[in-house]
Amino acid sequence: MNSEISTLALEDIDTIWEYTTENWSIEQAEIYYKEVFSEIERICLNPDIGKSINEIKAHHRRKLVGSHMIIYKCKKETIYIDRILHQRMDLESNLDV
Question: How many domains does the chain have?
Answer without folding.
Answer: 1
